[in-house]
Structure formats: C-alpha cells, structure tokens
Amino acid sequence: MKGVLSSVRRRYGGVATSLILVSCGLWALGLVVLPQLMMIDYSFRPSLPPAKQGGPEDIYTLANYAALYGNPLNLAIFLKTIWSSALVTATALVVCYPVAFFLARMAVGRTAGLLFIALVIPYWINEILRTFSWLLILARNGFVNTVLLDLGLTQEPIIFLGTTPAILVGMVYAYVLFMVFPIYNSLESLDPHQIEAARDLGAPWWRIHWRIAIPHAKPGIAVGCIMTFMLAAGTYAIPAILGGPKSRWFTEVIYSQFFEALNWNRGAAYAFILLIMCLGFIALMMRLFRVNLAEVTR
Amino acid sequence: MSADRVFRLFMGAYVVMFLVYLFLPLLFMAGASVNDSRFPTLLPWNGFTLKWFGDLFNDPMLWQGLGKSLSVGAGVIALSVPLGLAAALLLTELRGKARGLLYGVLVSPILTPGVIIGISTLVFWRQMSVSGGMFLTVLAQSSFIASYCMLMFMARLQRFDRTLEEAALDLGASHLHVVRRIMLPYLMPTILSAVLIAFLQSFENYNTTLFVYGTDRTLPIYLASKVRIGLTPAVNALGVIFIALTIVAAVVYEWRRRAALAVKPGKRAERPEPRTADLRPAAEPA
Amino acid sequence: MQFSRKLQVGGRDPALGQGVSLDGVTMRFGDFLAVDDVSIDIAAGEFFSFLGPSGCGKTTILRLISGFVEPTAGRILIGGQDMAGIGPNKRPTALIFQNLALFPLMPVWENVAFGLEARGVAKQERRRRAEQLLELVALDGSGDKRVNELSGGQRQRVAIARALAVEPKVMLLDEPLSALDLKLRQHMRAELRTIQRRTGVTFVYITHDQSEALTMSDRVAVMSQGRIEQIDVPDAIYNAPQTAFVAGFVGEINRFAGHVVAADARHAVVETDVGRLRGVNRQALRPGERASIFIRPERMRADGAANPADENSFEAVLDRVGFEGNVVNLFLRTNAGREIIAQQHNSDDLSGLSSGAWMTLRFAPDSAAVLPAEGRFEAAA
Ligand SMILES: Nc1ncnc2c1ncn2[C@@H]1O[C@H](COP(=O)(O)OP(=O)(O)O)[C@@H](O)[C@H]1O
Ligand SMILES: [Mg+2]
Q1: What domain count does chain A have?
Q2: pLDDT at position C72 over 90
Q3: Spelled out in words, what is the top-level CATH class assigned to the domain C252-375?
Q4: Do the domains at C2-239 and C252-375 have one common CATH topology?
C-alpha cells in the first residue's frame, strides 16, 4: 500500500496526491459507505420520538423487517415487484437482442450511424416524459381505446391505467435501451469471420446465434439484465404515473413509510430489503453468465 | 430468395418496427401538444394551436423548477467530474486487493437503485441535522454520477501513453505543469463528455431526487407532480421542448465525436474510442 | 542532415557533461531482480553504451539514472552529487525514450521548446530557440507541423532536439535508432557521435545492437540478466572478452566446450572434441575446471594442407561457401558434427573450393580465449 501511494506521489506530486486521496476518501466514505451503513443502522432500530432516542428503548431489533412479513398486502406488493421486474427484464431481452445484433453486425456505414442516433435520442429523454407519452396512449379516451372503439372491437373503453400490465408496458418502453446498448457493445467485438465460418459449415441461423453470437454477448446480456431489473424494481416514477392504488410498487411502499407514515426506520428496512434483492439479482446474473464486476461495469 | 436474404429482410423489418415503437409515443406527445383540446390527447383532432406552449411560459413554477435543475446540474458537474477524475487517477495506479475494494465501492452506486441512494443520503445527513434540499440533491446525485464519470476517465486513461508524462517530467516540468500541458489536453475530450453526461443525468434524475429535494423542486419533480394531478396539454408542450433539446444535444454530441475522430487521422495514433464508451448505461439508475 | 554545422545554440558555450556513478545499484520489481549490484563510473563527456539482450535491465538502468524509479539498494551520483530523493524533473539528464514519446497534441516546435517552457522562458525566446535547434537537426521550417506528419527519421531528430534544448549534462538514449531503417540508422550513428563530441555532453546509450555499441562508444558495458559482464573499450570487448557470455553475445564466434588440461599464467589448454586447443587464460583457470575456448571466425585460418598434428589445428569438412565480396565465409563441420565458421579474405587461394572438401583449421593461441563454462551462457545462446 505504501509503495502504491509513493507511485501516485511520484506521478502527480504531493499536492495533487493529497487532493486525490482526500476526494476519493470523501466520496467513498461520505457519499457511499457511511450513508449505506447509516441506512442499515436505521433499519434495525425502532421508530422513536426524538426524546426517547438513545434511551433504553433504542435497541437493535428486527421489528422493522418483521413488519413486512406481517403485512400480507405489502409482502404481496414486494413479491409482485420482484416477478414483474423479472418479467420486464425477460421481455426487454427478447425484444432487444435482434436490434442489438442488427446494429452491431448487420448495419453498416450511414445506416448504422443514423440508427445509432435514433436509438440514443429516446434514451436521453426524461423517463417521466417517456412514461407520460404512454399515459396518452393508454388513457380512457386515449389512442388505443379510440382505435378499438372505432374498429368496433370493444363497446366500452378499456381501463388500462392503474393496472399492473400498464406499468409493465411503460417499463419495457422506458428501459429497452438499457438492454440494447450493453448487448450491442459486446456483440460489436464478435469477429465476423466466426459467423461466416459457421455459415460456411452449414449452420442454420438460429444455431449461429445459439452457439456463437449469444455466448459472445453474455457479458452484455448480463449487464443489460442487471440494469433493466434494477431500474424496474427501483423506479418510483413509472408506477406513480401509470399505476393506481391497486397496482402499487414496492418503491411506493417505501416512499409512503418515509413521507406518509413518517416511519423512517421501517422505510430504511424496506429500502434495505430492496437493495438486497437487487444485489441478489446481480449476483445471480454474474453467476449465470460467469462474468465479474469489472466486466459488468466496463 | 436465399435464406440469408430472408433473414436480412426480416431483421430489417423488425428494426423498423422497433423504431416505430420507440418514436410513435413521442410523436403522439408532439401531436397532442399542438391539439386545441382541453385534454392531452391527439384524437380527436381539434385543430392546431400553440397556446399550450404559451401556458407553459406563463407558469412560474416551471421556471423555478428549471432554475433549480440548472443549479443542481452545475453543482453535480462541479462535484462529480473532479471526483470521477480523482478516482480514475488513483485506480489506474492501484493494484491488487486495494484496487478491487476501492473499485467495488466506487462503482456500486451504479448498481444501486436510485431510490436507495436518495434514502441513504437523507438518513445519513439527518444525523448532522441537514434536511432535504438542493445541497442533498447535489450530493445524492453526485454519488452515482461520479461513478459514470470515473468509468469514462478510466477508459480514456487506459489508452494514455505514460511515457509522455515521464518525458515531460524528464524535461524539467513540474507535476503541475505536466498535468496542465499533458494530462489535461489529453483528457479534455473526456472531460467535456463527462460534463455533458453528468448534466444530462442530473437534469433528468427523478428517483434519487424524490427523497432529498426537500422543497427545492427540480424540473422532473415538478413535472411528475403535474403529470399526476393537473393533466393539461401544457405538459406535452414541455415534453416536445425536451425532445427537441435532446435531439439537438445528441446530434451535436455525435457530430463532435465524429469531428474528433476526423481530426486525428490516427495513423499510428490511438485507436478511435469505441462509439458508446461515453454514452453507455449512462442514463439514471432508477 | 548536417549536425556538424553549428552546435552552439543561442550563442552559449556548449554545456559540458558530468560524470555518472552507479554504486552497488540494485533494482527489484517484487521478487524479480532487474538490476543486480551494478557499479560503474562513467566519465564526464564520455560516450558510454550498455549492450545486452532484450530484457536484461538496460532500460531500467536508464530509468534509475533519470529518476523515474529509485533503486532498491545502492547510490546514483551525477556530477558527484547523490541523486537519492531528487525527482526526474530536477536531474540534469535528458532521456530519449525508446518510443520517443513526442507530445502528439503539440506542434513540433512546442515539443522542442517544452523544456524551456517548463523553465519559464518567454514564448518568443522559446520559439527562436526551437527554430535554432530544428535547424540544427535539419528540420528548419517544420516547426508548425504536427508530430504525426513526420517520418520516422524526422521524429527521431525532433526527439534529439527536444532533449538538447534543456542543455543536459547527461543525455540518456534508449535504443533511439531501433525503429529506423538500416541506411538511416547508419547515418544517425555518425550524427549522434558528432553531436556528442561537439557538445561534450555525457552520453549514456542503450542498445541491443553490438555493432552500434562498438562503433559509437568510448566504452561499452555488456549486460546479462541484470548484471554487468564486462566494461571495456570496444576493442577489448570484441577481442578480449572476459566471460563466455560476452564472447558469445558480441559478434560471431566459434566455441568448443571441454575442460582445462594444462594452464599457466598466460595460456590454458582445453580438451575438446576436436583435440586439445590452446588459448589465452584471462580468468586464471586451473586444470580440471570446465571451460570453453572461443575463436573469432576471422582468426581461423583454413587451408587444404592436412597436418592436424600441429597445435591448435583440426580438420573439418566444408559445407558451403558464403561469398560476401571482400571476405568469404567458410561453413564447415567437424567430425563430431560441430559447425564452424572461418572467415577469409578474398583471394585466389579460395577459388575452386567445393563442398565436401576436407580442410585443416588453425588459429594462434593469442587470438583465442579460454573462459569458464557457465550455465548462463547456455541459456543465452
Ligand atoms: N515496472 C516494472 N515492473 C516489473 N517488472 C519490470 C518493470 N520494469 C521492467 N521490468 C522487468 O525488468 C526486466 C528488465 O527490463 P528492461 O530494463 O526494460 O530491459 P531492456 O531494456 O534491457 O530490454 C524485464 O524482465 C522486465 O519485465
Ligand atoms: Mg528496453
């Protein structure tokens, strides 16, 4: 460690080295580690009025976690959030793989450039606005219902908003591009000769993908799945806009603990549960696709 | 027609459909923003109007939100770009366990749901009696935006020829002079990209900000509240403006990237950066 | 490309060189010993070369002298002053990097003037000095070009001008000519030597090319695996190698392994598979020790007359004749299958030789070296 620091010193000089160390320390501790630890600490303490904090009742307890288990409604919301996010992730993967493959291996020159810009633009548009655009489509008097009514396919407008499917549609729309780019990045490094060789050997197109392209894209698929799942499980905006009281998301439960029930300790516990779930999903993906952290964040 | 051609055609058609899927909702929004209807809708079409844009400009809350968002964005740039750079400089020098640990800690915010970053920041700073507001918003956003900046800088530094730095030192330059004349010019394109990415991420952040904004409502916070309660087509008008700005930014960015590649014909010089190096999973983690 | 025209830049006196001393210098990278207890005194104004195979620690020695790394043990003195703790930017050295390390984002003249910029010289003056130096290296008018518009040889000269600009006392050059083609390389050798003579700056030169080291240097240090094998004038390195490694690494040489059967202060006799051979005994070998005897091809006399009973003579069959104009290389094979090269001046005697002919080879004892056998030579050969 000492040797390492001296190499930093030698490279950047004493002043800059101190600055570098201090900034990294402040960031790692002040913005990442300590806040997380504090949140975890909170989650194991009872919610007490300020007067009683630090008093005899202020002991570590699992009560906040037990609260989730003891509340069937919130527990159901939690489980729904998990499987819905997994569903969003799987859908996005299926929808995106062909697009990523086309962009990386089939499009050339101008087409590739234009397609790339066309994909980047929606990627940068505010999540809320992108979600809002689906509000217009799914509303009672929105585009879908207008078309269905005009075609006589339904007599009454269908209520989409406030349902879980509406949320899922909005999420797939909002997060598809987080799946496209990682897969594109990994497919781009695939040697085209490999595909040609396989084709020469008479492999049908599906086998080329199954045996060559998809294995090569594994790190990208892992990254895409991790990002999409984390975004889906952790979003507040989309269920708030497209959902309703009957389709609450776990983030909404957490939010209400903080700002409606004003029980920060329980909110922290719920947040920690969400975090653990996301970490578990990341670990699962890294296992499944045999990639490590450096590859995931490359 | 050969199987290969059928496959190509099929893939082309699929990608076109995908683009339609991406852009149609945005087009609806644009259409609704100029529809003279009380509700935000494209159909039925009641004729063209610009009055919703007018409404927008007369909305003081919106301007306030914009002001807050710009200030927060400036703060996030000022904090996360230097932090990302410092960490990248340190990490390129570290080896072994220490590097793995620091790297893990510093990229973890990217893999953490945004709401949790907001919550942990809020909880942590309550201990120091700091409550939600612009300050916490900047800190919470920076904690993960700095990670993106760090990854960008690391990618760039990896291709840095260290003998340049040594040559400068050898010619008698001070460390400061080396940084100013060798490192910074080399890093400048990435610094500009990092500034842009940091700003865009901050500007559109909602999930993290939600927990820490206190009373300093940024534009996305204001927008979300408007979307949820008072539905007027003015929101669409705002959306259209956002989309237009985004398109301009994306085109300028892409143009600049290409121009940068064109200037350096890169004979023996460095390989051009992979095109997505700076754009990748760069949007906000929930 | 005439450097010889004028070397006084800006009307100053030529900077005089300073001596460099390494005193027991050792450098470890983890467990790996890159430089092993090296002690050398390089005189002020000397053209000193390090010669050795790739990976033997040459670059590491230059980096130690220029201050990019601190030695694990030992001292480095420049001009008599201990350099411990003095950073590369404070040492009176200028290093020409193996890859040149020109600054790609600066035009040529800013490259050349960079050291002056670091010293706070005003811009106009910098530009003027840069132009003078560029003229010196025959690149006048290229000041505003970008570095990657230049050819390999031009880039090389920019690097030299950039190093000269800071008027170093010691110039360190890390295989500076290795990227150039043969013709340019030979030209640049002469130019570098001229610059060194004119400026009086001490040159510490690194190369794995023995002819480069031998033609340019006042003295040469031959290195192997982090250690100095021999420090000597080029003539002695070639003609009087002190170790098997030096004998084998520098130039072509014939080698016969065996053991010493007789020895005195001057000569030693080695029993080999072609018989007993006598050579100079520089390492005071004693009978019974394992040793090899080394003979340069040009010191081998080959003739048709068979009289192998003479001392230092043996028979071999001619494999093929390599004609090089002024000299002719005879490739032969001994009874034991050992390949021998004998180099002869071109003469009428050699006409009519054909492969398969038996010849007798002989050499003078004073032109052969008997040196201790060592495992390291085997590895390097
Ligand atoms: N920074 C370093 N870390 C570890 N090993 C090194 C380092 N620098 C050089 N080496 C090792 O030291 C040995 C000598 O290297 P070098 O001095 O560059 O050799 P040369 O210039 O003679 O080819 C090599 O085996 C190289 O791998
Ligand atoms: Mg070297």
Answers
A1: 1
A2: yes
A3: mainly beta
A4: no
Which residue puts its alpha carbon closest to atom 12 of ligand 1?
C34
Q: What are the domain boundaries of chain C?
A: 2-239, 252-375
Show the 3-state SS of chain B.
Answer: CCHHHHHHHHHHHHHHHHHHHHHHHHHHHHHHHCECCCCCCCCCCCCECCHHHHHHHCCHHHHHHHHHHHHHHHHHHHHHHHHHHHHHHHHHHCCHHHHHHHHHHHHHHHHCCHHHHHHHHHHHHHCCCCCCCHHHHHHHHHHHHHHHHHHHHHHHHHCCCHHHHHHHHHCCCCHHHHHHHHHHHHHHHHHHHHHHHHHHHHHHCCCCHHHHCCCCCCHHHHHHHHHHCCCCCHHHHHHHHHHHHHHHHHHHHHHHHHHHHHHCCCCCCCCCCCCCCCCCCCCCCC
Judge if the upstream peptide bond of residue B44 is cis by omega within 30 degrees of 0: yes
Whether ligand 1 lies within 6 angstroms of the CB of C57 is answered as yes
Residue A58 covered by a domain: no
**Which of A182-196, B228-242, C187-201, C313-327 comes out lowest in average pLDDT?**
B228-242
Residues C138-167: what's their mean pLDDT?
Answer: 89
Contacts of A65 (CB under 8 A, 6+ apart): A43, A269, A273
* Residue-range domains of chain B with CATH: 10-49 (no CATH), 68-227 (1.10.3720.10)
**CATH: 3.40.50.300, 3.90.180.10, 3.40.50.150, 1.20.1380.10. Which one for C2-239?**
3.40.50.300
Residue C19 or C17, more confident: C19
So what's the pLDDT on residue B261? 62
The residue with greater pLDDT, A235 or A108, is A235
Neighbours of ion ligand 2 (CB under 5 A): C 59
What pLDDT digit, counting tens, does each position of B139-165 carry? 999 999 999 999 999 999 988 998 999
Instruction: Give the 3-state secondary structure of residue C276.
Output: strand
CATH number at residue A259: 1.10.3720.10
The residue contributing the CA closest to ligand 1 atom 24 is C55
Distance from CA of B130 to the nearest CA of A (A): 13
Whole-prediction pTM: 0.81
Query: Hey, are the CB atoms on C89 and B172 less than 8 Å from each other?
Result: yes
Contact yes or no for C29/C57 (Cβ under 8 A) = no
Please give the share of chain A, as a percent, with pLDDT higher than 70.
97
Of all protein residues, the one whose alpha carbon is nearest to atom 20 of ligand 1 is C55
Chain C residues with CB under 8 Å of a chain B CB are 66, 68, 87-90, 93-95, 97, 99, 101-105, 114-115, 117-119, 148, 162-163, 165-166
Backbone torsion region of residue C55, taken as left when φ is above 0, otherwise alpha when ψ lies between -120 and 50, otherwise beta = left
Nearest residue (CA) to ligand 1, atom 14: C57
- Do the domain assignments include residue A10? no
Mean pLDDT, chain C, rounded, equals 87
List CB contacts (< 8 A) between A206 and chain B. none
Q: Give chains near B: 3+ CB pairs under 8 A.
A: A, C
The Cα-based distances of C80 to C41, C50, C220, C232 in angstroms read 10, 21, 21, 22
Yes or no, beta carbons of C118 and B172 under 8 Å apart: yes
pLDDT digit string (tens) for A228-280? 999 999 999 999 888 888 889 999 999 999 999 889 999 999 999 999 999 99
Q: What is the mean pLDDT of residues A4-9?
A: 74
Nearest ligand 1 atom to the CA of C206 is: 21
Q: Mean pLDDT, to the nearest integer, of A25-46?
A: 94
A139 domain-assigned: yes
How far B99 CA lies from chain C's nearest CA (Å)?
18
Cα C76–Cα C78–Cα C82 angle in degrees, nearest 5: 50
Contact B106 A106 (CB under 8 A): no
